[in-house]
Queue: 2 jobs
Job 1
Amino acid sequence: MVMTRRVAIGLPVLLLADSLGGAETADQRNARMRWWREARFGMFVHWGLYSGLAGTWEGKPVGDRGGMEWIQDRVKADTETYAKRAIPLFQPKPGFAREWARLAKEAGCRYVVVTSKHHDGFALHDSKVSDFDAGSVLGRDLIREIVDAVRAEGLRIGFYHSVIDWHHDQYEYARSKQLPHPLKGRPYPNGARDHAKYVEYLHAQVNELVSGYGPVDILWWDYSAQDFQGQEAWRAFDLMDRVRAKHPAIVMNNRLFRIPEAGFTGMGTDAVSARLDPKYGDFITPEQHIPATGMPGVDWETCMTMNTTWGYSEHDHAWKSDETLIRNLIDIASKGGNYLLNIGPKSDGSAPAESVKAMQAIGAWMKVNGEAVYATAAGPFEKLDWGRCTQKQLRNGKSRLYLHVFDWPKDGRLVVPLANGAGVRARLMASGKSLPVQATAGQISIAVGVQAPDRIASVIALDLDGPPSVAR
Ligand code: FHN
């Protein structure tokens, strides 16, 4: 039975579109994706039982680099042993979710994506189909607390949901050589498994998440392998149809699949290409890196940690500088992508002090310069020696360029390879101060003075009477 796919194109008009190949029109898709494209910046949150272990097992550090949300796999613990050690340490404090939501808002994030379930299989919502969940173990619905807090700050909410599951006793981990599992290579502890039963459970839990918490804006699936993916592994198309039936405007990533048509060229986190058939998802997910030339023609989002782990580790102090994080955000926006920046809260839900400081620094920069990131498109220049450029189309055919200057010119003159710069108006975003512009053949020179307003990135807005023409 092919489920039809209802596409909301503005209430109360609903269009039924055949889900075969996702017959959503380009206009409908652009309308659905608009908020996400304009958002540009989201906060990722990896939080679960692993957060209480904090990268430590049997009193010793498991390591000081790499994902400690994988600790169960790194120590090859079965789910019973893992649960016995981790559950007593996982102690969410009252109000943790409001702290996250306020931090995301202060940072200038427009959406929050939280791990409803990571690979360890522990669900943060009150699940009626599992006893390995916050409701059963803590008597709390942590997803409810998070959704309410995020919405109270006027932000969009997304669920990261792992299809990989190291807890469920029907998950057939032997069917993939590429997907991780703590028991990999060992026989199933209790004899033969029936993966279809796990997939039923997966669908049932996702159904709980898209039925009980109001509007859900993003479903961030994670992750598939070339040797086990899609409809075979997860009944992926049925899962996407189930979600869209409840939330026609939802935005979903591409990670139920691992094929070239879904933007994957291999198993590496950088093995991605600018190719996405919408039936496999709405955006491509480069991880821990920024594609050198962006991903022209497709929607994409770089997800990144602030140190080297997604889940909290008390041993990982390799924090990226505020300069790196802010320039990453600018670099990604200048290439037309979104930045999903991760925090890994501790067992009680408090964010590491370094993460709070970084998010506050980003927020201070966004307070002054957010206009140059939100609702912008990739800049027109292939490369600028001194920084990056984003752009917006204005009314009446006019356009605006935002010049993000990392390296302030020592002679106080900023040269821009703009061929149609005659009459362009320049102003400093920080102060609104107009700046003198000289237009010569193939470039403009802006008298910016010798003092950069911001040590990390100073923005100059350029207003043109038409589209920019780049000098060759
Ligand atoms: O294995 C996960 C990892 O723990 C983390 O959740 C990242 C975030 O994108 N996704 C997978 C690795 O690609």
Note: The radius of gyration is 23 Å.
Job 2
Amino acid sequence: MDHSILKTLTHVEGRAMTDVPANHVSLRMDNVQLVIAVKRGQRPSIVHWGRALAHSAPEEFEVLSTRQWAFGGPTEDVAPSLSNELGAGLGGPSGLLAHRDGGDWASFLRVEQVEMVTAQHVRIHCRDKNVGLGVTYDVALGPDHAALSITISVKNEGDAALFIAWAPVMAMPLDERLSRVWGVTGRWAHEFEVQEIGAHRGTYLRENKAGRTSHDNFPGLIALAPFTHETAGPCAGFHLGWSGNNRVRIDRHTDGRSFVQMGELFFPGEMKLDAGEVYRSPTLYAVWSDTGLNTLSQSFHRVLRQDILDGRSRAKPRLVHYNTWEAVYFDHGEDKSMALADRAAAVGAERFVLDDGWFGGRRSDRAGLGDWTVSSAVYPNGLHPLVDHVRSLGMEFGIWFEPEMVNPDSDLYRQHPDWVLNARGVEQVPFREQYTLDLTRPEVSAYLFDAIDAIVKDYRVDYIKWDMNRDSTHPGGMDQRPVIHRQTHAVYSLMDRLRRAHPELEIESCASGGARADFGILRYTDRVWTSDNNDALDRQRIQRGASYFFPPDVLGSHVGPKRCHITGRMFDMEFRAATAMLGHMGMELDLSEETDADLDVLRRAIALYKAHRALIHSGDLYRLEASDYLNMVGVVAKDQSAALFSCAKVEGHSTTLPGRIRFAGLAPDKHYLTRLIWPTHPPSVTAPSIVEAADLCGDGTVFRGEALVHFGIQLPLMHPNSCLLYHLESVEG
Ligand code: DGJ
């Protein structure tokens, strides 16, 4: 080994973090480290992203990763760069495609200046003088979590217009051990389906051009080693915080390298920069874990809770919702809504959300969108009597809007048929009888702001359910250029303006369920509507899939009717309520159709949620490894003083008895009082069982954390579609 490396090592160790480094930048947080080579005049590249190696130097990593010439390839190894732009000459798909009328395409970026914005945030300015391009990478790790937040800005420094075809945030190199990929797909009422893609050479590609985050192409993926699971092994997770079109790709090159690229998908000609203009990308969140998928998810949850969510939703408990949709659909009326409110308050609801159907000519989904005034046909006295009634019952008032949409059968469309996105000469794709408004027109955004603001002011609205129920398939704006990039920013701006005007107002992001759930929209909203599907069994899977990226606090999770309207399946209240409790709990059913006994169960579930929501919404989430017939997830308090675990039996098992549940995240040496707090009755089919032996439904028994994690506790014999909630509380030994 060249001993000069060790000399450099000493120098690096002695350097204050905010000094501008000469050759390498190293960001470190918890057990994660990112090292980027930033030598002036050279290509920038990631040297190491993985476990924090406190005693090693970047120069050491560079020697350790020396590659060599191999037959059939370039005679000198070509190093990657942060964008693998075409001029850098690396094989495989490039991470920056731009040109000026067919010229200036071979961009090759070299580091010009490096700024330490903070000790944990570096800004790397690169330039290609030949093609007139300036690129800035902003890379931050933490401050209080181990997630990277990365953006790229591309500046046209030439005189003529520059067209960007593809500018993903960065080409993130993947550790070669991570040969498996989990993509996230889904459909309406079946969101967050995690799909395993085995080892491959070539490309795994997902392209979303729905004009919203979409049901089917969630912009996230996870790469993991063959031996990685929830509580052990290396893995990397990526999520693009963006609510418009996107492309997600993982390229496994023949030379053995792999890169993840995520960025906006532009329609042809969409991203045109005139001289001096800058394109700013959405943020890529990238997470590394050496200790399995739970740690990976916890990093995503932390960055969301700490850096993205607005203080308003953090500062107060997540109120129990009552949403009117499945109770009445479009069949509104003052008396009816008041009666719904009475029943909701009686079981413990804290917020009443009036869904679709209260405005304009909206008596079905075929008319009225765009006419945001209260319908005198269904609310002849306006909404004041209802809102006053809701408040007299101690609840907040929320209301539904679908601001970006218009029905052709509406006053708004009759007055402004030119306000919709379209492509000249092409038929609109029929989609729920509605079109997308062009929010890049200032007069459209102004109209929407005024209309929503008036309702919010008039009724002191606490909460908006902001829906979006169609794909924007032909997104041409005023000048017929594609506008999804600008449209997405216009939606963010409209939300931002409303939130500034109403500092207490909370917003839910809904798009036919979970088609606009991402960290971009959550900068301007407070929770997402996870899925229209309230089938408790499906919800067990949907919520588990969503939990890889989202914490329970932002996942709207409602108790639906006994027979699910979407799947037709029936579940008892114990199962429905337990399933909803591990999210942001609410109800969406006609309570008059439930038996008194079921209403009592629901009331008890809501009380239990209220008692434990502080833990559910702040703790670290753990998914437990279990047989397929179980779904087990839980939250553990940051100081490991308490935990709540849900164990759902989602199907039957082939053995006569189920196995043991092994908890996670508990302190091995702490003593935990272990109790079953749900269901409301002893859950075992036969008795006596572990329930009696450990008095789980009574005073409980104290076990050591170590035993609960590594030995486990026998499950009682339960029927399928039932759910246990274990509460663990640390007590003096
Ligand atoms: C789709 C949403 O996902 C539903 O919850 C409901 O709000 C309907 N739209 C209303 O049209």
Note: Residues 311-619 form a domain with the TIM Barrel fold (CATH 3.20.20.70).
